Amino acid sequence: MDLADRPWLSSYAPGVAADVDVPDEPLHAVIERNAAAFPDRIALDFLGRRTTYRQLATEVARAAGVLTRLGVAPGDRVAIALPNCPTHVVAFYAVLRVGGVVVECNPTYTRDELAHQIADSGAKVAIAWEPTAARLLTVQADAGVKSVVAVDLTRDLPGAKRLALKLPVATARALRSQMRGDVPDGTSRWEELLRDARPVPASYPSPEADDLALLQYTGGTTGTPKAAMLTHRNLVANALQGQEWTQLGRDEAEGPRRGLSDDVVYGVLPFFHAFGLTLCLSFALRIGATLVLLPKFDVEQFLAAQKRVPGTFLPAVPPMLDRIAKAAPAAGVDLTSFQFAICGAMPLPTAVASAWEAATGGLAIEGYGMTETSPVALGSPCSDARQPGTLGLPFPSTHIRVTDQEDPRVLVPAGERGELLISGPQVFQGYWNRPEETTDSLVEVDGRTWIRTGDVVVVQPDGFVKLVDRIKEMIISGGFKVYPSQVEDHLRAMPGIEDVAVVGVPGGDLGERVVAAIVLATDVAAAIDLEQVRAWGEEKLARYALPKQLEIVTELPRSQIGKVLRRVVRDDIMKRKPE
């Protein structure tokens, strides 16, 4: 299906342009620009600690000085493994300021997972939360990282809360244990390096728009962890596309929306995830908003922040909206300040969207994207024309094709299902050190570069795109991607398991529940239960990838060439009652 004429433009919300002009500038340029334009505006709010745009620019410059002292040069990779906090924001932009490449890592990853990403990316420096730094130090030599810098998360708290953590009471000790971690003596400390740092001068050269800015790890279609290469231009483009889509961050001369100082974006999605990184770290600061940071999603903490700093824009996954809308009335918290909630990573149920809109008076919008598209590529319009249950419309400056699933150069007839291909300024440059997989994912057609999404869609006459099926067999659980082959490889090595297939089944708030169907070895002495499987999995797998249901089967269905038919396994499980 050739969609060069872009029929979806007629369904755009009022005022949204068909295209955006992407400036030739690095992503971090907005920090200095905002500091000059409105220095006293609040940029960050972390549990009550407030940072102005002037202070943020100063802290980024000092942190950039730290990085140059650590030997970071243009093109060097720097890993960041931190929860959402001011230090994460500062470190992210400092790496970009000196021309480095950010490698975002999940701070809760196991030692082996961290070691793989650090070694694969060739990161020279790792800036990590104390518990994460402790794990990294045990594999520092194998990972090849030269410097591991530990971050004390409590240093980002307001002064009164830091003092409260020292009180000899149980609640203070519990919170302190959650935020701190033991690291060996002699470990480099971020706060100590900052204290002695000199800011990089304004004359220090900045990277170009087409320079690499970020390595964001994703399993893509195969489940093998690999890094998507995103340039400054890719990230700036997606932030601008989001601004055009929402019409936020405009003054009265530019449009009907309120002034910049009224925008408050809630940063509850993890920044190490592409969705949270772009919508919070990039988009929020580009529109000059106040970014309210929460180290993790906690309903009580969210509602307490909402009382103090009413939000206007919430990037989230559907379970977050559901829990907030249900808890707010009992807590006496008003949510009507929120104009938009944009959901991704899993389908947005109509009931959840309706409950959120009833509680806020604003809109719940569904978006679609992938790490390789920086990440947002489609979304429902921010208007009454939105269509729950669809992927929405292509973003400004974004083109799509629907093609034969086997040959991306062959278009399918209008209205028929086919693989979704996407082209636009937000499309990545390829996979880091993976030329063959880059070639498999990117195709050149009609003078454009297209990313193959692996998703099967149908485009309606009005341009709305509806997801029909997944070519990829990954599982979306709680907004995180779980790759069955990775889980299977680890579980297959567990004593007593002969074979295993891992699938996703509908799981309520989780989106999908990870289910392992196992064939027991013939010599197994006793039955294997779910807790044993999860305990074994915890050695290598992230918690969200651990099976939540176990099915014992006598054999696994296979194709004529011996491949396990996961879809048949899933269908069989769906016919049974979950444990």
TrEMBL record:
Pfam families: AMP-binding, AMP-binding_C. Transmembrane segments: none annotated. InterPro entries: AMP-bd_C, AMP-bd_C_sf, AMP-binding_CS, AMP-dep_synth/lig_dom, ANL_N_sf, ATP-dep_AMP-bd_enzyme. Residues 32-432 form the AMP-dependent synthetase/ligase domain. Gene3D superfamilies: 3.30.300.30, N-terminal domain of ligase-like. CDD domains: FC-FACS_FadD_like. Residues 487-563 form the AMP-binding enzyme C-terminal domain. PANTHER family: LONG-CHAIN-FATTY-ACID--COA LIGASE, NONRIBOSOMAL PEPTIDE SYNTHASE PES1 (EUROFUNG)-RELATED. This is AMP-binding protein. It comes from Flavimobilis rhizosphaerae.
